[in-house]
Q: What sequence folds into this?
């Protein structure tokens, strides 16, 4: 059965490369029926299901794959993306950080570090934004009610698109384009709404953000003493030094790097200092 499962997997890979997600998922499913103990088949199917936006199915596949193989970077990576898609940022952050740790500590998988770090940062932003939404709701009940109304409208529009797609009125590509347009429009309306309230009450409802370039790519915390590498990547001094003691390579690019090649990033350190001075208190919640 194992050799048949391998043939089905290869067939699924061919469909995946062509962007034929449903066909790929079907092949991986058939392969799993032939060899249900192979964890890699579940991650392959999870990746296809990510493309199909079958979030719960992705989560199920990833958890099954992890049960079969604990040190499973891809499963945690796909799991984080699905958890993020269903608005579970805390769980997504945990999964993404697990994938990142596996990635940077494995010579064979570190080429994915930059990609995984972006998912970590997206998860952390989503977690931060969820807390910000709750803070703003407490500051302004009206803002909360209006945001709830926009969210209900978005969900209704997405449900209508799904219904039309299920009845064959929309093709897969057209449905995806309409979903993206609805989500983008909803996000724009929320942004405009918050900006309006922020102008009216900047002290309590003003937007609080942490720029990506101030965040360390190893710990994903705001930097205090950033240094820059010869490749142009910036890290918190203490964390990159600890990393280099274990592995003399840039954690994102995997190019050779030593402690002596680190240089202070003076401009970035000034920006970090200004952030802390202007926003004492809340930046520590990041």
A:
């Amino acid at each position: 059965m194992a050799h048949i499962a391998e043939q089905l997997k290869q067939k699924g890979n061919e469909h995946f490369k062509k962007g034929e997600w449903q066909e790929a998922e079907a092949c991986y499913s058939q392969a799993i029926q032939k060899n249900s103990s192979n964890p890699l088949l579940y991650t392959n199917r999870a990746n296809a299901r990510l493309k199909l936006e079958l979030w719960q199915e992705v989560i199920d596949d990833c958890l099954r794959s992890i049960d079969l193989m604990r040190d499973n970077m891809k499963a945690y990576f796909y799991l984080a993306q699905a958890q993020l898609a269903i608005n579970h940022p805390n769980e997504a952050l945990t999964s993404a950080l697990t994938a990142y740790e596996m990635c940077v500590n494995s010579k064979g998988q570190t080429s994915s570090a930059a990609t995984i770090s972006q998912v970590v940062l997206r998860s952390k932003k989503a977690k931060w934004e969820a807390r910000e939404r709750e803070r703003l709701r407490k500051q302004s009940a009206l803002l909360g009610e209006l945001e709830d109304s926009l969210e209900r409208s978005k969900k209704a529009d997405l449900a209508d698109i799904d219904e039309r797609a299920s009845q064959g009125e929309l093709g897969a590509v057209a449905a995806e384009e309409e979903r993206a347009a609805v989500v983008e429009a909803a996000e724009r309306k929320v942004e405009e709404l918050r900006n309006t309230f922020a102008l009216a009450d900047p002290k309590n409802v003003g937007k609080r953000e942490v720029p990506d370039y101030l965040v360390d790519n190893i710990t994903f915390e705001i930097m205090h003493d950033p240094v820059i590498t010869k490749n142009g990547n910036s890290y918190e001094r203490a964390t990159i030094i600890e990393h280099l003691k274990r592995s003399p390579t840039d954690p994102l690019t995997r190019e050779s790097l030593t402690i002596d090649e680190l240089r202070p990033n003076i401009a970035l350190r000034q920006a970090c200092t200004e952030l802390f001075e202007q926003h004492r208190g809340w930046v520590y919640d990041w």
Q: What stands out?
A: The chain has a mean pLDDT of 87. The two ends are 50 Å apart (CA to CA). Residues 141-200 form one domain.
